[in-house]
Hints:
Oligomer: single chain
Distance between the termini: 37 Å
Number of domains: 4
Number of strands: 11
Number of helices: 27
Amino acid sequence: MSTFLYRLGRGCFGKPWPIIVGWVLVLAAVVAALVVNGVKVTSEMKIDNTEAQQVLDRVSRELPEASGGQASVVFTVPDGDRLDTPARMAAIAETVQDVYELDQVINPADLSQGQGQPPGGPGADQPESGPGTAPPYQPLVLDGTPVPGVLVSTQAPVALFQFQFTVPSTSLTDDQVSAVLSVVEDAERGTGLRVLPSDSLKAIEIPVGAAEVVGLAVAAVVLVLTLGSLVAAGLPLITALVGVGVGVGTAFALSTTVEMNTATPVLALMIGLAVGIDYALFVVNRQRRLIIDRDLDAREAAGRAVGTAGSAVLFAGLTVIVALVALTVIGISMLTTMALVAAATVLLAVLIALTLLPALLGLIGERIVSAKARKKGHTRREEDSHSVADHWVKAVVRLRWPVILGVVAVLGVGAVPAASMDLGLPTGASANTDTAARQSYEAVTRGFGEGYNGPLLVTVESADGAAVTPRTLGAVTQQLQQRKEIVAAVPLGTSQDGEMAVLSVIPTSGPDDDATADLVQALRSPSSAVAQDHDVVIGVTGFTAIGIDMSDRLAEIVPLYLIIIVGLSLLILLVVFRSLVVPIQATLGFLLSILATFGVTTAVFSWGWLGWMVGVDTGGPLFSFIPVIVTGILYGLAMDYQVFLVSSMRESHVHGHHGEAGVVHGFDQASRVVVAAAVIMVSVFAGFIFSHDVMIKQIGFALAIGILIDAFLVRMTLTPALMSLFGDKAWWLPRWLDRMLPDLDVEGDRLLRMLTERQDTEVARRPEVIGK
Length: 772
């Protein structure tokens, strides 16, 4: 592999323009496809093969008018004002009518008798509260006629307008959502009303802002400090931007044909920038060191850099790709799309580092290293022996037992909060207090009760497949109404064949409460009183139920995925390092870092510790996909650092530095670029922490803190301590196993032998040698 990459690097360096033009044409084709196809992304979350999704799919077929996306708007007034003035009631009624006139919204007046009404948006038949209690609301009545879909609280100056779209939320466009927002926000003009859309009603937008640019700026500074040249520092940025331009642009271009969540291209952007910069950094840094330390010309140095550092880049990139593609075995289409788009972006980063980068180096030529830097080459080794890295690794090796125990203890403490990690979907309850979503949630809670923030869609079907009679439906509704966990139950309609009836059920608890999850499970149970008394099958769906099922499904998947990752880690590292100790050490270190990452993320986003630092003022559940996404990505990136650091130690061992000396020498050679790469990754990921999208915020934080933990505590501290503990035995491998494993030549030994043989041949052909 190293010899092939060496020839590839020299070839791209020697003929740069065809390579550069080729990549420019690829980028241009992506831009053209993007212009032609446009962009269509959704904020909807769903998991295939969950009970809630299956029920929703059946409702979509049997009673489509009851399966559309739900939304709500809250109308309030300043403290001390009255909401129920004639002018304000008229303004609310007019706004409601304007919303119903939109093509994408169901108008209850257009529904035939018995075909239902929008969930949570009752018309003349208002939901009733439990037995013997007065409901804390009343319908909005204007000129003696109830306004469908609107409830006015009797406890607070709050009016709640709940309505339903004609299609599922996944099918809504940004223009359709924005049209609703435009209509309801008009109600604020000259009325004194304040309009608060719910969290489910917000414009769909790509959650990327200025903070990501700050992260790139920090990465640029680190590149300049590491490479010591503006020209050299610019190359990783250029190649990374080309990579994400092609990868993310292609994802956007495909979004009109492949259902894509807003987080999918952002995740690809996040990973593509980080690995794109790092992989180019490794190659450019190796080329510069070969020029400075060995007086090679730029082309030969570029070829050798691609052959050696490029081999490590290829393996590291494939490791990340394998970790991401492994997410597809979980069988969740949304997660599969996210993983494949991110994996494709990483693959592009690898290809660009091995082709476009050496081509750009060919354009720059010898200017990649200044004359001043070349003059310092003779003092390089002396500087290395007195560097911070050298002092650090020698101290770690000398105090290896306290270091090992200390790192394990710190990571163990950091992992403690992970035991109480709560998974779910973002709701208004976990939004910041200054957002409309949070204020809407609180207003609904004050006026109607927390359950109105997360109505359940309940289906009723006869166990024998017969039609559900009106008498049975009435009895089921009454029995549901009498449960203490339910505030209201309202029939929405029945299917044309009468075999399915749909109800809107308002729980007493909020969407994120354990009591709501318990209610969902209780209603679904075949042994529940409702199912047994009336010989019916109860199904539960809706946003809240889907969130509950999603969290449960993903919580079950995390252990399985960890097993897959651990198995892959042991196998891949065994092949690369031809060692038993190194794979076990690397995998155990990764498990410590991922558990600590989950712990710290839980403490910040769920417990609220230091939440102000990341722009969070309210604790809430972690996004359901966080564990599997972060595990896959962090595994791949952690193995990047393991490869570049430990392969340097192995190279030192192979070239005669044994025991602790090999660990120290290898660490000195690789630590500077690994530290720079880690800082760059942390900077890029940290830029996404300040996204307005809580999901991107949590992913960015988890990846940033995960890289900090893994790179600096595990790879830069625990790894050299453990490697020095085992000494030369760290490279032991049974002979029978050594014969079975393929030789990937990550360290470039085969390339070095080829170059040595070629040099000897050239020397032998010289006239003065032949004459002798």
